[in-house]
Amino acid sequence: MEKTVTEAIAHRRAVRVFENTPLDPAQVRDCIRNGALAPTSSNLQLWEFIHITDPQTLGAISKCCFDQNAAKTAQQVVVVVARRDLWRRRARANLGFLDSQFEGNTDEKWQRRRKMALNYYRKLIPTLYTEFLGLLGVIRYVFFWLVGLFRPIYRQVRKSDLRIVAHKSAALAAENFMISMAAIGYDTCPMEGFDSLRVKKLLKLPMGAEINMVIGCGIRNEKGVYGPRFRVPFEQVYRQI
To answer: Residue 95: which pLDDT band, with cuts at 50, 70 and 90?
Structure first.
């Protein structure tokens, strides 16, 4: 029986050693679909999920991850990629979807909403994401900082800021995926220890793609969780105002 959300969160651990037990690729793919339902900045969905089941590629990705146990014993691997470079394509996809939703409705209020929504992807998104050697981001930052002296304004407008935005969205999707895996009794281990350049070459990713994390997947070995879960006291990380 599939676990509840709370049960799945409690069950999920970073499993370092997996059993030599095959996983159903279709079930893993369904969990990735759940990952793609995660919230994402401006609905741009600047992510890509590469599902590795081929034994030879699994061996190669393990070497890129320094043959750590979570990679070496993984039955499958999911690589979560931040794709800030796809912002134009994703903005066009949103425009096409919005046009189809507003089509045929001539209500004045509805048309105002349509204009606002379409301008968001036609004007605001290009203003934020268009870049030239990092210079436009600096110009945007200075302009928005000056405006911010007089009123609240969005300030994460540099190239480095937008990279963080893409990685935050990708990480949210990765967590959706891992909780979904835990819900059906599969285990995962998100890894940040890897040679990102070699991973990109292995997966034939373009220059603008960035590896967010590599996730080993399998069934946990009894020694696969290296210790009891530790969290600092909740009161140290929680404030109610």
So the answer is: very high
Q: Distance between CA atoms of 50 and 72, rounded to whole angstroms?
A: 17
**Helix, strand, coil shares of the chain as percentages rounded to 5?**
50, 10, 35
The helix/strand/coil state of 215 is strand
Query: Residue 108: how many CB atoms within 10 A of its CB?
Result: 7
Residue 236 CB partners (closer than 8 Å, separation 6+): none
pLDDT of 199-209, one tens digit each?
Answer: 999 999 999 99
Q: What is the pTM of this model?
A: 0.94
Quickly state the pLDDT bin for 31 (edges 50, 70, 90): very high
Q: How far apart are CA 63 and CA 71, in angstroms?
A: 8
Count Cα neighbours of 167 within 13 Å in the Cβ-side half-sphere: 13
Helix (H) or strand (E) holding 54: none
> Shortest CA distance to 88 belongs to which of 129, 36, 43, 137?
129
Residue 167 DSSP code: H
Q: CA 44, CA 121: separation in Å to the nearest integer?
A: 10
Q: What is the DSSP letter of 236?
A: G
144 neighbors 155 (Cβ within 8 angstroms): yes
Question: Which residues, including other chains, have CB under 8 Å from residue 175's CB and lie 6 or more apart?
Answer: 38
- ∠129-100-46 over CA atoms, to 5°? 30
Amino acid at 107: D
- Assess contact for 46 and 86: CB atoms under 8 A: yes
> What single letter denotes the amino acid at residue 2?
E
